[in-house]
Amino acid sequence: MAEMSVSSEVPVNNTIYINNINEKVKLDELKTSLKAIFSQFGHILEILAFKTLKHKGQAWVVFEDASAASRAIQKMQNFPFHDKPMRIQYARTKSDIIAKKDGTFVPREKKKRHEEKGKKRKEQHDALQAAMGLNLAYNGAYGATPQLSQIPYMAKSAVPEAPAPPNSILFIQNLPHQTTPMMLQMLFCQYPGFKEVRMVEAKPGIAFVEYENEAQSTQSMMGLQGFKIVPENPMSITYAKK
DNA sequence: AGCACA
């Protein structure tokens, strides 16, 4: 049985997973500074970080030896990094670059998804229509007016608190409990620049939707503000706090 | 909040 780390209950790994990283830091700067900080524990094979909604604020540092990863966790846990304490664990799975050295690497399928994409799309579309009991073609078309016929959410909150400044990520509230990520994707992917939708399991009724840029997120917000998946829940869309 | 393989 693999040796377990006490704090995280994740087995020892060559790779450390870091989160709680300041999301304002640019990717290349982030990688450079991680390299500078972690090289002292052993040879680093690779540092990975991404800027998508799901993966921002996180990074993977792959060490040649797992012992270096262990030392890094011991010594750098909660280390203040760009004004935030790093949270470090072993990565949950083996990094590809390690698997390649092992000879255990099996490339993951990506084109398969592409082949089935048309079909998947259709299924998602049908699922959403069934769930909402309406036809998207008349509702969500780019530039078309959503089911806003009634009072937009603005009218209810006479004195809203200072909103987050415009940015590429939207914060959606007042979603009905039966809302699924697929349903939201069907709605929001119709607008150009759509990247991804994210729901938080622990917090029903809200979601984040990311676009390539703020002009595109703004178009989407204007198009879908107050959209009702069910009649009693007009969705409220604001820019996400940064 | 969030575990990837640009």
Automatic annotation (TrEMBL):
Keyword annotations: mRNA processing, mRNA splicing, Nucleus, Repeat, Ribonucleoprotein, RNA-binding, Spliceosome
Localization: Nucleus
Chief place of localization: nucleus
Organism annotation: Heracleum sosnowskyi
InterPro entries: Nucleotide-bd_a/b_plait_sf, RBD_domain_sf, RRM_dom
Similarity comment: Belongs to the RRM U1 A/B'' family.
An individual GO BP term: mRNA processing
Descriptive protein name: U1 small nuclear ribonucleoprotein A
Domain RRM: 14-93, 168-242
